[in-house]
Structures are given as structure tokens and as C-alpha cells.
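pinned: reference chain
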Amino acid sequence: MTVGLLLAAGAGERFGGPKALARDDDGTSWLLRSVQALRPCAEIVVVLGAEAEQAAALLPMSVVRVRAEDWADGMGASLRAGLEALGPTGHDAALVSLVDLPDVDAAVVARLLGHGSGSDVLARAAYDGVPGHPVLLGRDHWDGVVATAVGDRGARDYLAANEVALVECGDLATGADVDAR
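pinned: its C-alpha cells
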């Protein structure tokens, strides 16, 4: 079973506020759009931090909420909090996504999930050959990711040190994140 793990804890300082509370011009919630993209997963867990209570109120009851107490330390803290919360569960893998990927949808998630599963899987979406998000982390990799996830680097160092399968998704999305309004 693969769980969808959405990182949505940051304050969005460059953006001008928490991206978990952001909306498109048409009113579409980034948080809800990101949750919807993870629907192909067996379960969805969202890691919150800045304005956690306000963001949690937007989420459907079916979504598990995890609070990253040290969220201000960067994406690494959110990733650690999410994976540590998943430790006692029966999930074999976590598909990690970010709240600021407007065109990454369920089709991208389904393609990545179709690449494989199990506790040893290590894969990530690529867009025209460039590695991006989401990232599929088998349980065998969780401890290594937690040990190296610091600051805003997330799993970058762990992924660079290990063989990662790239799953091309450039025909489905750009995978570009939004850092400014």
C-alpha cells in the first residue's frame, strides 16, 4: 500500500504567505487540488506547520493531518515529520508531493505509482528528463531520508546518493513549482 504524503507546512516567505492557504485567481485551493492529485494513493497524509489550524480546516475528514513542530526549519523538517508519523503504519511506500505544484495531478501520481511499489522502490517524476516531484519512497529508504533531510533540501541528498528510477511525466505536466505570486 502506498500512502500519499503532501508537504504543506511552510510559511511561504518568498511567496507572501503559507501556500497551504493559497488560491488560484478562480478560487481553487492549492491544498485541496494537491490532495485531489493524491487520490490514486491508498491513504493521504498532509504535513502542516504555518497556520496549521486554518489549513487543517480546509481538509476533508478522510485526510490524516500531521503537524511538523519544527516546520520553520525547512522542507526537511516537514518530510521528517511525515515519514516518522508513517513509521508505525503498514504502508510499503510513500509518494511525496508538494502543495505548490499546480499542474501535477492524479495522472502524474498514477503514472508514478504504476512504475512499481514495495518497500524497496525509489522513483521520481521527471519532466522532459529533469527530475522533479512527486517522489516515490519505499519504506526501506525512509530512515535514510529522515537522516539526511535538513533545511530546504528535503530528500535531495539521499536521492543523489542512490539509484533513482526516473518516470517521465513531461507529457502530463511541467512539474514546475510556484515560488512567487
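why pinned: The chain has a mean pLDDT of 94. The chain has one domain: 2-168.
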